[in-house]
Amino acid sequence: MTSEKKHYQRPVNFKTGKVEMNFGAGGKASAQLISELFAKYFSNEYLDQGDDGARLPCPEGELIMATDSHVVSPIFFAGGDIGALSVHGTVNDVAVCGAVPKYLSAGFILEEGFPLSDLKRIVESMAEAAKEAGVYIVTGDTKVVERGKADGIYINTCGVGVLPKGVRLSGSFCKPGDVIAISGDIGDHGVAVMSQRVNLGFETNVESDSASLNRLTEKLVKGVPSLRCMRDPTRGGLGTTLNEIASQSNIGMVLEEDRIPVKESVEAACEFLGLDPLYVANEGKLIAICAAEDAEKMLAIMREDPLGQNAQLIGRCIEDENHFVQMETGFGGVRMVDWLTGEQLPRIC
Amino acid sequence: MTSEKKHYQRPVNFKTGKVEMNFGAGGKASAQLISELFAKYFSNEYLDQGDDGARLPCPEGELIMATDSHVVSPIFFAGGDIGALSVHGTVNDVAVCGAVPKYLSAGFILEEGFPLSDLKRIVESMAEAAKEAGVYIVTGDTKVVERGKADGIYINTCGVGVLPKGVRLSGSFCKPGDVIAISGDIGDHGVAVMSQRVNLGFETNVESDSASLNRLTEKLVKGVPSLRCMRDPTRGGLGTTLNEIASQSNIGMVLEEDRIPVKESVEAACEFLGLDPLYVANEGKLIAICAAEDAEKMLAIMREDPLGQNAQLIGRCIEDENHFVQMETGFGGVRMVDWLTGEQLPRIC
């Protein structure tokens, strides 16, 4: 052993560098990417342990665990990016179960040649979103695949939250007579992404609503005694999510079209794109359902929150063994709100 | 509302069908794929709750959380497949931290056109691996990307385990004088995958060692009082993993080449492929390090386990502020075992 051992290669170039296959090979380059990027931006007492898994305190009780892979295209869009979205999406899945989100994992699949400057921007955005939501990114993984075997970057996050004692929410708990609320305008995320993807021919100015809902859900859990269930209507939109709940609870629903909040700009873009806002993805909206006696309380809590200012009571649960979701239109008619069949918006999240 | 609502489309064809974009769109087709495949094979009391996150019992104390994305190519290889591997890999990351793995999430990224028969085979294999390891797949997610934006299937798993009271293991706990054990022959997984990928020109008969190590790790945690750390040497192999531990613990290591178990067939294949078995990935092998006084006990526990029959004590920790890992060769020389630099085997896990 005569030659001096080099502990480090040249620093990773986050300005003009590209993802190389060896960043995913588990050797020195992988270690460098981790230390110079992920460990730097995500740093916290759990991630910094540096072992194969993160050691996490856990109070006695129950956990909620949820996961989402994110493949949105384009990766940067008005109002967000794949990084923040990957935090919001999983934080929300944990939060709507009534839990306080605590810990996130982050698994990256990178395409060879992906600009490191974009990766850095995405990682910064994730770190910021995690901080805002009050969650820790505690463990992670990076894989690199050859050019043409991915589309830049895919991110999986898995979230773990703590369920406060006695809290029980489920899509199967709704009863006839219950009231359905939505926390604000629907369709923003889907339209923001789609309008960036296709040449709309006009400016939409629609921004994604991508946001972490856990502050709002915590207030609802505490303040609405008869809260039955919460859901974030992402892929498949409000229409599909309500159908899922109706099936789970073995009930029907009646919505009032006039009360469903949709921005004019979203309405216009949907018309242009041939989309129905009811089926367009949201990433910062909440459906909440409770008994009629708590409906005004639920609405008030939503409207007090910055993310729920345009909240509305949009309908009610009814007895219906067919689990139909119906909508009373402005003209006194009734139309069916079916599940989304086929594919309205691919790779929206 | 006059027409009868169809609740279900035709059944998913798992014999000759292909993944279609609408399987990932969050509508009826997504729901069908989930109910007819994932929910069916992974079914357990937690997954069956059917909400956005799974509600999980958790004893007071500490959790271990770890994640891995799997992009192995080919997806089926001698001794395993991407499905079983995605369970083994994450179970092992949790187990080597000293925890009892309990819950897994599963996030699928599918390429449009991927054969559903292959997907079914992979899901069955995951279900089987989870059952063997005694873990539950409690929550999941499926995304579909267009042809040419993935390579058939990528799977992320995240694992949560419970750390028994008082157990503290870390790659930073090793001390000079400690003894290093490996649970068996190295390099099997990498060679099995590579020999399937390239035309080797001869039969290797090497099978991947892909397996869940949590039974063995539980025995070591209970039976080896001075256990400092455990690791599974996957990407980067034994050489890189030992370098990581040496750095974390601020020590050096001396290995004895003659004691490192490598199958002759693996040795031959590595020679042919220009690989060093020290850097070839394992998916069912364990490094364990403890104080010298417990070394024989550690070895005996390993050898009693079906997955540790060829376990060996391969070296010791020494004082070295440079964190060098050295290897005494059969001829009385010493060579450096550096970190893997660059990329030895892409997409090996």
TrEMBL record, chains A, B:
GO BP terms: protein maturation
The family this protein is said to belong to: Belongs to the HypE family.
Alphabetized Pfam families for the sequence: AIRS, AIRS_C
Location of the PurM-like C-terminal domain: 175-326
Protein name: Hydrogenase expression/formation protein HypE
Annotated InterPro entries: HypE, PurM-like_C_dom, PurM-like_C_sf, PurM-like_N, PurM-like_N_sf
Family annotation (SUPFAM superfamilies): PurM C-terminal domain-like, PurM N-terminal domain-like
This protein's encoding gene: hypE
Record-annotated PurM-like N-terminal domain positions: 50-162
PANTHER family: CARBAMOYL DEHYDRATASE HYPE, HYDROGENASE ISOENZYMES FORMATION PROTEIN HYPE
